[in-house]
Design brief:
heterodimer, A: mainly alpha, about 85% helix, B: mainly alpha, about 75% helix
Chain lengths: ~120, ~200
């Protein structure tokens, strides 16, 4: 077995011929895409290994960061609007409370000095 | 590598000069010259794809893609030897990528669709068993074995083609050959005992 193993493996893995028109089909494929327009060029660029391995993850990360940024800005704007609304309500409540205190104080003053 | 391809790459000066000329013309946009290059290198490229992927249709598609890609990169190719190196490297890497994405290939010994082989002067049963066993190797180990036994490359050339350390190549070869030998030994014992493989 040992002696025949190497030659047998060589024979088992000897080259295979593709179909006779293999080269013709490739040339036809190249012919059909011989006039590369912008879309084809863009498609090729997007399919290239460099794009997929380097730029695609970077672009996805940039999109993710931009998305998170937009969400945070909108959240901040919502919080600021809510704070303004709360401030206005607080001022209105203080104003009402102040009016009530004035009315009570006037009533107490009238009780203490009915003649005046 | 096949005889014709080997002759085209390493053979007579005439053939080499012819391919160098074809490469130069192809780089200037001559599709007929590129077709000549395809014919010179189609066997190693298609065979590597076939032995890696097993399915002839997939192998042909991959080999075509590799040549189309080679056409786009012709400007970076400096010689016909460089072109062959580029083709081998690209087909191996793409086949490994496809195999990683694909479900593990299950190749039952009895039902595996056998690729028709040319007449052989050896033991066809043993050779078929070896091809099945090679298909069961992990993708990178399979590529190493194919480059060694189909393309007759030495370990340092295989390391260059696959972009892996020399010691890794040697380790893949050692483990894979041990596995193939064990599989062949099983077949020998089985047939010696009168069974069918």
């Amino acid at each position: 077995m040992t002696d025949e193993f190497d030659p047998a493996l060589h024979r088992a893995l000897r080259s295979q011929r593709p179909h006779q028109d293999f080269a013709d089909r490739i040339v036809a494929r190249l012919d059909s895409s011989a006039a590369p327009g912008a879309p084809a060029a863009r498609l090729y660029f997007m399919r290239s290994r460099t794009f997929r391995s380097r730029w695609l993850p970077a672009a996805l990360a940039a999109c993710l960061i931009a998305g998170i940024g937009v969400v945070q800005v909108r959240q901040h704007a919502r919080d600021a609007a809510r704070a303004n609304q709360a401030r206005a309500q607080l001022l209105e409540a203080l104003s009402i409370a102040s009016d009530n205190v004035n009315i009570v104080r006037a009533a107490v003053a009238r009780e203490e000095h009915p003649d005046s | 590598m096949s005889d014709t391809s080997a002759a085209a790459v390493q053979g007579t000066n005439g053939a080499t000069t012819s391919l160098e000329g074809a490469l130069a013309r192809a780089q200037r946009g001559d599709l007929a010259a590129f077709q000549q290059l395809i014919r010179a290198y189609q066997e190693p490229v298609y065979s590597l794809a076939l032995r890696m992927l097993k399915v002839p249709e997939d192998a042909e598609e991959l080999a075509q893609d590799v040549f189309v890609s080679a056409h786009r990169h012709l400007g970076k190719i400096v010689s016909e030897a460089h072109l062959l190196f580029w083709l081998r490297r690209t087909v191996c890497h793409r086949a490994i990528d496809r195999l990683r994405r694909r479900q593990p290939l299950v190749v039952p010994m009895e039902t595996a669709k056998e690729v028709p082989q040319a007449d052989s002067d050896g033991d066809p049963l043993l050779e078929r068993r070896l091809r099945d066993l090679v298909l069961r190797l992990p993708p990178r180990a399979r590529a190493v074995v194919l480059l060694k036994y189909q393309e007759d490359l030495d370990p340092s050339e295989i390391a260059n083609v696959l972009g892996m350390p020399l010691n890794t190549v040697k380790s893949h070869l050692k483990r894979s050959l041990a596995s193939l030998r064990a599989g062949c030994e099983q077949l020998r014992q089985f047939t010696a005992a009168g069974g069918q493989p």
